[in-house]
Amino acid sequence: NAGVTQTPKFQVLKTGQSMTLQCAQDMNHEYMSWYRQDPGMGLRLIHYSVGAGITDQGEVPNGYNVSRSTTEDFPLRLLSAAPSQTSVYFCASTSRGSGTEAFFGQGTRLTVV
Amino acid sequence: KNEVEQSPQNLTAQEGEFITINCSYSVGISALHWLQQHPGGGIVSLFMLSSGKKKHGRLIATINIQEKHSSLHITASHPRDSAVYICAVPGGGSQGNLIFGKGTKLSVKP
Q: pLDDT truncated to tens, each residue of chain A (113 aa)?
């Protein structure tokens, strides 16, 4: 098992550009989430999914879009990048039930100039 | 919404010292996660516990459900333990997401 594979590891964007962060898991987990990590703020939930075809907004969804066409993949799209979206992004997955371990991708360090 | 507080925010120790990091939360939970993040690195799960105590090598995690409090202990600390340690609890409902503390940055000096 590869676990959670997240790409790219680093990215620099210009303001207004769009991009997609990829996230894939091979553990057949139902639940997948995207978080951003900012200094002094901890990790905050952007969007999440409880299964293929089902997504919902988290705490900081503005400027981001997600879809979940398969159980394995949960890409995060930045529609028009802004400097405020400079952050480290993590994808995570877990199986159904609140008492199960969470698995994280390696993180994407995004800089918007 | 659950509020997760960690203390201390920063911790510097000498190699060999016993380390304690604390986590408290505001709403009852079914399980709590302790995570580790090395500088510039990803996040790995250390423990998930719903009661009592768990031990893995030099790391020990305890939880008191009644007091809504958990502790992470590191015995005989080593410079390679230098990392950010993060406490997290389920976000509620059947969503699979987590609510995180802001982390404790540990630096162990040789």
A: 679 999 999 999 999 999 999 999 999 999 999 999 998 888 999 999 999 999 999 999 999 999 999 999 999 999 999 999 999 999 999 987 656 789 999 999 999 99
B36, amino acid identity: Q
Task: Please say whether the beta carbons of B32 and B65 come within 8 A.
Answer: no
Residues in chain B: 110
Task: Name the minimum distance, in Å, from the CA of A98 to any CA of chain B.
Answer: 6
Measured on CA atoms in the order A87, A92, A16, A19, is the torsion positive or negative? positive
What is the Cα–Cα distance from B88 to B102, expressed in whole angstroms?
Answer: 9
- Interface contact B98-A102, CB threshold 8 A: yes
Q: Which residues does chain A have within 8 Å of residue B96's beta carbon, measured at their own beta carbons?
A: 29-33, 48, 50, 93-94, 96
Contacts of B45 in chain A (CB under 8 A): 101-104
Q: Is the pLDDT of residue B2 over 90?
A: no
